[in-house]
Amino acid sequence: MDLPIVTIESLLDNIENVQLFQLLQSTDSNTLQIILLKLEGYSNKEIARMLAADVHAINMRLYRLRKKLKKYF
């Protein structure tokens, strides 16, 4: 059984694809925190509340990351 991912460092440590690792490593820590919370099952609205951010800002960060990922995968 895999241990749950609880930190950004453990998130990155669990990535085996070199390109994905490099792309995420170059991503800002706020976006990585959003990814971590999404993996834990939180909604964008809940994440916005936890990070004291606007839901639109959360949506935009995820949109930009998906757009960046689509270039490589």
How would you describe what is shown here?
The protein has 73 residues and is mainly α. Helix content is 68%, strand content 0%. The chain has 5 helices and no strands. The chain has helices at 8-13, 18-25, 29-39, 44-50, 55-72. The longest helix has 18 residues, at 55-72. The mean pLDDT is 91.
Summary, kept brief:
Helix content is 68%, strand content 0%. It is built from five helices and no strands.
Shape: globular
Question: Helical region count?
Answer: 5
Spatial gap, N to C terminus: 28 Å
Strand content: under 5%
Instruction: State the low-pLDDT regions, or none.
Output: none
Helical content stands at 55-70%
User: How many beta-strand runs?
Assistant: 0
Radius of gyration: 12 Å
Largest sheet: none
The SSE order reads HHHHH
User: Structural class, from helix and strand content?
Assistant: mainly alpha
Mean pLDDT: 91
List the helices and strands and how they pair.
Blueprint: H1 8-13, H2 18-25, H3 29-39, H4 44-50, H5 55-72
Helix pairs in contact: 4-5
Characteristic terms for this protein:
0% strand, mainly alpha, 73 residues
